[in-house]
UniProtKB/TrEMBL annotation:
Domain EAL intervals: 449-704
Keywords: Membrane, Transmembrane, Transmembrane helix
Protein name (database record): EAL domain-containing protein
Annotated ranges, domain GGDEF: 306-440
Keyword Signal: no
InterPro entries in the record: Cyclic-di-GMP_PDE-like, EAL_dom, EAL_sf, GGDEF_dom, Nucleotide_cyclase, Rev_trsase/Diguanyl_cyclase
Domain of life, per lineage: Bacteria
Pfam families: EAL (PF00563), GGDEF (PF00990)
Keyword hit for Acetylation: no
Residue ranges crossing the lipid bilayer per the database entry: 12-36, 243-261
Length: 721
């Protein structure tokens, strides 16, 4: 995934909390609006309920006054016209005993009196012959109604008032008569009455501002009851809640954005650090391989492939430099190369440190001569700088180059770099600073390896890999056959017998070596089991283990289970490890050896002497056997010095109770020297070559010992495979 895609994903991830916050705020506001609407409805319902209750109270009082007038009128109903003259005095005396409402009598209906504010109710009095005697009036009605309205619910806060159908004020609670008598209020009331029997509206009354007003008919004399409720007082309860919730939303939003901003800055800083770690080499501060691949893909996306080349460079004997001069000096050299590559860059130049001392890069070129000249310039600059810093070891560079073709447009950067790496490895064995191009010869080799690679896994399933064994001879015990080392040959139907040097490195590169290791080990255990079951004497069998195999978590358990499966006695199976397997961590490897010893395995160190830390390994590792690589020592020009070194290594191993095996021995005089030096076992052409398992088993049945004089016999027994 490209960096830009990573950044886009990060931004989307950062947007998720904001979207959730917005969703939460919308939900809170929606809930708040819902609660406001619900409170409004509840308040309106409550206002209507109060208005109905006030209506019933006022209506009941007025109906009671009317009933009282009718009762009095009924009491006067039996009089004749003569006695009716006494009614004014009777009514006057009656008022003296009544509190509140005042009753008056008039022989005729007095419209002037009816228009006065205190007289609104009247009842006709009829005589004994049903003739009209006069009218009874209810006086002081407004005063009575004012007192009554003051006692109604919310009267102390709002208004209870009675209006006629023309909008004229009849009575009101409190001291609001002046406010309610205004012409605009009269018009508003009249407008409300004209709209229906029961209306709800807003009224601007006095200094209180807007009040919620409900006007309902009293069903008496075309009167209407007005109830008002001040919003400022009645709505303060849920307004406080609304404001409180709003403040909480604002505070939480502020805290959220403060936290979000801090988190965003932290994440951005961490992201920048992670990108730097993921795409920058920690030592040289140049690109690492992942960053190089992205940059190279970007450059080549729309470029002319024919004008670009990929190179792969490393330092010869860099491991030796680390061992002799130390890792700090090795790191300094790597930093120097990275700086020089930066300074000596050419057109469209990008490079990286792949791993260890390996660098790779992409550049645009006009001709191959330009690339060679650039490499020479780099070598010269490197040599001048290193002569002043390091005078003990000559540091040499080796670079392989692959020139891209148009057909490489769909080839991955990994494969292109690998081709440049193959060219580099192809010329690395040549002395001095080397520069070479990937060519047809190397291409054919790659094609050949690819074909082998495609057949490998199926070859294991088809059992095309066969066991070969090279006998091991105990020269301190009459040249008896002490056992053998299990080797592998690939019997390919298309190519015939293929030697390990042609396919082992490919299997290691592709990770298939573990399958081969375990296949060969189980095949060896199966043969040894059958060999022992046939009554033959015990014999040691050594099996090689790759570095990838030993790093598997189930390594000890798997090998132990196969050994138990075929009932192999302890001390017969030997596992051979190369020096490179053990160099990484002595403590971890010693723990592994201890577990293998518990399961009855013998552990040996192969190719001893071919590395630079062998003596340290001999000192630190609890191994059982050391295999001396005699072919390595044969590279020396002074045989005497060579034998002194070998003799001392053998003596040192003896004192550490470690057996020694010399492999690669070809000459009889070498056998005599090793015998006198105390070497335990020899493995080499001087006694026998690697042979098929069937030939090895036949050799064991024919003889129990070999001698250098028997070399021809041994060679005749074996096949040249």
């Amino acid at each position: 995934m490209h960096m830009r895609e990573n950044i886009r994903i990060k931004k989307f991830d950062m947007a998720i909390p904001v979207l959730l916050w917005l969703f939460l705020i919308i939900c809170c506001i929606s809930f708040l609006l819902y609660m406001v609407q619900k409170n409004d409805k509840e308040n309106n319902d409550y206002y209507n309920s109060v208005s109905k209750q006030n209506q019933l109270t006022v209506k009941g009082r007025i109906e009671g006054d009317i009933h009282l007038l009718k009762t009095i009128a009924a009491g006067f109903g039996g009089m004749d016209s003569d006695h009716a003259r006494e009614l004014p005095d009777i009514v006057s005396r009656m008022n003296l005993s009544m509190e509140g409402m005042r009753v008056e009598y008039s022989r005729q209906l007095d419209w002037t009196r009816l228009d006065r504010e205190d007289y609104y109710l009247n009842v006709l009095v009829r005589g004994n012959e049903n003739q009209p005697l006069g009218y009874l009036y209810a006086g002081n009605v407004r005063h009575v109604l004012n007192g009554l309205l003051n006692t109604q619910i919310y009267a102390s806060l709002g208004i209870c008032a009675v209006f006629d159908n023309r909008g004229n004020l009849i009575a009101a609670s409190g001291n609001r008569n002046d406010d309610l008598a205004r012409s605009d209020i009269k018009n508003k009331i009249y407008d409300m009455i004209s709209k229906g029997q029961q209306t709800s509206s807003e009224l601007e009354i006095g200094v209180r501002g807007q009040e919620h007003a409900i006007l309902i008919p009293l069903e008496i004399n075309d009167w209407y009851l007005l109830n008002t409720f001040p919003r400022s007082d009645l709505e303060i309860r849920y307004m406080e809640t609304t404001v409180g919730i709003g403040i909480l939303i604002l505070l939480s939003s502020g805290l959220f954005f403060l936290f979000y901003f801090r988190q965003y800055r932290t994440i951005a800083a961490n992201h920048k650090t992670l990108v730097n770690i993921a795409y920058t080499d920690s030592l040289t501060r140049c690109h690492n391989f992942y960053a190089f691949k992205e940059e190279a893909e970007r450059i080549l996306k729309n470029a002319d492939m024919k004008s670009y080349a990929v190179w792969y460079c490393d330092i010869k004997k860099f491991k030796f430099i680390n061992d002799v001069l130390g890792y700090e000096e090795g790191d300094r050299i790597l930093i120097t190369i990275a700086n020089l590559l930066q300074k000596c860059s050419i057109q469209n130049f990008v490079f990286c440190r792949v791993s260890a001392d390996n660098f790779a890069g992409l550049c645009q070129y006009e001709s191959r001569t330009e690339l060679k000249n650039w490499f020479q310039k780099l070598v010269q600059a490197f040599r001048q700088q290193e002569l002043s810093n390091n005078k003990r070891i000559a540091t040499e560079l080796c670079m392989g180059v692959y020139c891209l073709e148009e057909e490489d447009r769909n080839v991955s950067i990994d494969n292109i770099v690998n081709r440049a790496n193959i060219a580099q490895k192809y010329i690395k064995s040549l002395p001095g600073d080397q520069f070479g191009f990937y060519n047809k010869e190397i291409r054919d080799k790659v094609v050949d390896e690819s074909e082998l690679e495609s057949e490998m896994e199926g070859a294991i399933e088809r059992q095309e890999f066969r066991i070969f064994v090279q006998p091991k001879i105990s020269i301190q015990n009459h040249n008896r056959i002490a056992g053998g080392e299990v080797l592998v040959r690939w019997e390919n139907p298309r190519r015939g017998t293929i030697l390990p040097g042609q396919f082992i490195s490919i299997m290691e590169r592709e990770g298939k070596i573990i399958l081969l290791d375990r296949y060969m080990f189980e095949l060896s255990c199966k043969w040894l089991h059958e060999y022992l079951q046939s009554g033959n004497p015990p014999i040691n069998l050594a099996v090689n283990v790759s570095k990838m195999g030993i790093l598997r978590e189930d390594f000890v358990d798997y090998y132990g289970s196969i050994k138990e499966k075929y009932e192999i006695p302890d001390g017969l199976l030997e596992l051979e490890f190369t020096e490179t397997v053990m160099l990484s961590d002595d403590t971890v490897f010693n723990g592994l050896v201890a577990k293998l010893h518990e399961k009855g395995f013998i552990c040996s160190l192969d190719d001893f002497g071919a590395g630079y830390s062998s003596l340290n390994l001999l000192k630190n590792l609890s191994i059982d056997i050391v295999k001396l690589d005699i072919m390595f020592f044969r590279k020396s020009n002074d045989i005497r010095r060579e034998r002194i070194v070998i003799s001392n290594i053998i003596n040192m191993a003896k004192e550490l109770h470690i057996k020694t095996i010399a492999e690669g021995v070809e000459f009889t005089e070498t056998v005599e020297f090793l015998k006198s030096a105390g070497c335990d076992i020899i493995q080499g052409y001087v006694f026998a070559r690697p042979m098929p398992l069937e030939d090895f088993e036949r050799l064991l049945g024919e003889t129990i010992s070999l001698s250098p004089a028997d070399e021809n016999k041994a060679v005749n027994i074996c096949t040249e495979k």
